[in-house]
Fold:
Amino acid sequence: MDARLPSVFEPLDQAADAIIAQARGDIHVKQQILASLEDGVGYLANAVEVLTWNVFEAGYNPQIVEPIQQSSTALRASARTCGEGWSALHRLLNMTVGELAASQQRAPDHTELNGGR
Structure:
């Protein structure tokens, strides 16, 4: 079986558990989670990009380098998408009642706006 580096990824597991535990929070918590994911997934994309260059510079074939590069690209796209989700929630939170009424957006439930109370 291939050896892995579990100690390196243990904080990622803990972060994922924290996100899952808090995802039921109000809209502000969800927005914070999206911002954290945008940053965290962006950091992962950077790490995979460094790995891509290391593998490339070591002379590995494109069949090995390209999937790693594609992974970095996908992670970067995922980080941007989390940022877009954050922006959408930000726009929703800053809409006036008139803007909300004129839009196709459904108003969040009151429990989403005031911490579940």
